[in-house]
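Homework help board

Subject: predicted structure for assignment chain

Our instructor gave us this sequence and asked us to write out the predicted structure in token form, then describe one feature. I got the tokens but I'm not sure how to describe them. Can anyone check?
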Amino acid sequence: MGINEIVKRFPPVQLFASAIVLFLAALLLLFTNISLEKSLGESKANASDLSSSLQETQSELIDTRGNLIQTEGELEITRSNLADTQHELNLTWGELAQTQEDLAAANNEIAEKNTVLTETKEELVSVQSDLNRVSDTINSSIQWFEDNSLMPDYEGFAFMNYIDLYCVTGSKVKLGCIDSILKDKKGVAYIDEEGYDQLYSLKEIIKRKGGDCEDFSLLLKAILNTLKKNGKDLDVEAWDSAGSGQYIIYEEGDSYFYYPDATGKKLGSIQDLNPYVICFSQGESGHCIIALSTSKINSVADVRKIDRSATFEPQTGQYLGKIGTDYYVCTDGEDGCDQEINHIYFVISDNDLYTFSGGKWTSYAYYSGKIETLEQRIAARLAQNFGAS
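My token output:
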């Protein structure tokens, strides 16, 4: 359509109005476009920020996904570890259950052992008490031999006065006289104790007016010890059957008593000699005499010190020979030695009794030492296990 046509169709006023409208519309469109462009710019900026944020978020998501994957791996390891731990716990529970059973059994065993320990303590205390009684008995026995090593003060029975009066001649004491004086003046004679053999005390021997061979030996030993204690320097003289004259044992008035075909046998100074009762085997029986030794016996180890000692018969005062030549001391380890003829198996000292039995020498002091050692061990065991002394 040409301009003329437009003018014709639209009058100038209308055209102007239309132009204004169009202008305004264009202006509005312009402003709208400007606003839209501004909004679009802002939207682009926001979109850019959003895109950057989305990229960051995507990167974080990727990192998070990686972390999740790693965490899932760790969780899987943890699940595996937990499964292993659960298995170990199950095993541990089983072990704990077994341990509880073992503890229960151990407690029962401990209770039983406590009962045994209590009984053991009671037994040890009982044994300790028994050992104390045995020790007292042994000490009493040792004291018995000490008490019977010297002649007792016995009123009205002055043995030693008779011995001094009849048997001590000058500087010697005659052993043959002592037995004769005991028989002739005091009526002390040999008493056969077959079937009821025991060792009597000196006072009992005096009261009974005699005894068997070990009693006579104990009595003669005490008389010699008493002479020695009184300080007299006397030669001890026995008599020997290897002689041709009369051996006078003592005199009284115009009378004298003697052994025919005998001679004196000096055995040494009484101050140098230690008398011991010794008993030896005669086969099915035994006999006791006296040995005079220059050595002292203080323990079982000293018994052999009586070797080479002179011996005499206490019931007659006769010299019998020497130990090592005519009599023999049994030696530890010689089983059956106490059954061999003339082998010594029994020795009485001034404070102990030594016996050969089971192939060895023992004594009251020997057993006393053993008991003392046992008592110390028991006391230590009680202190260690029960806190007792």
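Reply (TA_rk): Your tokens look well-formed. For the description, you could write something like this. Helices lie at 3-9, 12-147, 159-167, 175-186, 202-208, 213-229, 364-386. That's the kind of observation they're looking for.
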